[in-house]
Structure formats: C-alpha cells, structure tokens
C-alpha cells in the first residue's frame, strides 16, 4: 500500500502547482491528495497568513497543527474520518466557517470553543440526539447550518425538522440551504426585497414562478 502523503509534501505540491509561497498565501488547498493525507501536523505552522485552508477528501482522523494559524477564517475538512472537534480550540477567536460534512461526528462536545462561528456545514455525520444538537446553542453568531444526512435529520419529517431546529437556534438565518422563515415574521414580498429597478422585480417574479 502506498505511503500516505505528508502535509509537507502536500504543501510542496501546492506551491509547485500554483507558483505561490505557502507562507504568504491567504488561501491554501490541500484537497484530494493521492495517496491521501492521514495526519495533520506542525508543518502547517508555515501558513501564518492563511485565511482559508482546505483539507477535504483525505483520510484525516484528528485535527492538529493549527496553533499558529491566527488569521484562519474558513476551514474545510469535509470527507475525512474525523470523530470530534478536538484540536480546534486555538481557532476560537478567528474561525467563522467550518465545513466538515461527510465525517464520523456523533458528539458535538467542544464545539462551543468556536465562539465566532457563523457558518457550519456538517451534513452526513452521525449526530442522533437533540441533546447534542442543543450544543449549537453555545455558538452565539451561528446563522447558516447544513445538517442534512445526520440520523437526527433523517428521523424527522422535513417540516417538523425545520421548525424544531429553528426553534432551538433562534439566531439561525439559513438551514440546509434555505432561508429560515419564522412564524412570528411576516412573509417576504417583492416590495420587501427593494430591487434596484423594475427589471429586477420582473426577474424575481419570473424566477419564483419557475422555481
């Protein structure tokens, strides 16, 4: 079996492909390495200016090596083998978006450290209980959540799921890709959208009719 790609090797490949230096780059993509990356390590420390780091579609089991990434706002770890949020504590002050769909997460212990998180994409994980879902209430700025494909979601009727999830997370603006409409809010009208011109109104109405 081929030896796993190391973070050092993946960064070198990325630099050779893009012509950029990892130390100065604001976006770094180490996705879908072959052989896949199995371990994150302190080699990531060189990404001191990185604001978006992508490590999706590998075989990573644990998060580590992020302590020096003080500017990181978006972290993509979808399609790995992660089981927890351990290792992300150092990102509490900066991380705004976490993309972690298609992993093996059942418990949300430790997610509360990501106090500035606004966007959480964690579809197709293993969350089964509302008691775990409730831990998302500890994220005061969370406004966009993707949760389809978890056992908790699959066990509910769609309307019941949306109503209950929105009730438990009153600050949520978007759930599973759709705007959250609450019962105490009047429905949006074309006038509410305040388009720039009459043509824009026609476009909105036409799009709605054809949806």
TrEMBL record:
Keywords: Cell projection, Cytoplasm, Cytoskeleton, Dynein, Leucine-rich repeat, Microtubule, Motor protein, Repeat. GO terms for cellular component: axoneme; dynein complex; microtubule. One of its GO terms (molecular function) is dynein heavy chain binding. Gene3D superfamilies: Ribonuclease Inhibitor (3.80.10.10). GO terms for biological process: outer dynein arm assembly. It is found in: Cytoplasm, Cytoskeleton, Cilium axoneme. InterPro entries: Leu-rich_rpt, Leu-rich_rpt_4, LRR_dom_sf. Pfam families: LRR_4. Belongs to the dynein light chain LC1-type family. PANTHER family: DYNEIN AXONEMAL LIGHT CHAIN 1, NISCHARIN RELATED. This is Dynein axonemal light chain 1.
């Amino acid at each position: 079996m081929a030896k796993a790609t190391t973070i050092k090797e993946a960064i070198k490949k990325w630099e050779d492909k893009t012509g950029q230096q990892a130390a100065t780059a604001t976006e770094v993509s180490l996705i879908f390495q072959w052989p896949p990356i199995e371990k994150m390590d302190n080699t990531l420390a060189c990404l001191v200016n990185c604001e978006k780091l992508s490590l999706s579609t590998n075989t990573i089991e644990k998060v580590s090596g992020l302590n020096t990434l003080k500017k990181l706002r978006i972290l993509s770890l979808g399609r790995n083998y992660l089981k927890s949020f351990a290792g992300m504590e150092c990102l509490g002050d900066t991380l705004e978006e976490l993309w972690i769909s298609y992993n093996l997460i059942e418990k949300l212990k430790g997610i509360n450290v990501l106090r500035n998180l606004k966007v959480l994409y964690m579809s197709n994980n293993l969350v089964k209980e509302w008691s775990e879902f409730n831990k998302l209430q500890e994220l005061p700025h969370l406004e966009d959540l993707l949760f389809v494909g978890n056992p908790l979601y699959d066990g509910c009727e769609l309307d019941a799921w949306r109503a209950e999830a929105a009730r438990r997370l009153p600050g949520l603006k978007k759930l599973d890709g759709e705007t959250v409409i609450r019962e105490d809010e009047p429905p949006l009208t074309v006038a509410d959208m305040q388009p720039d011109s009459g043509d824009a109104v026609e476009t909105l109405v036409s799009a709605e009719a054809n949806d």
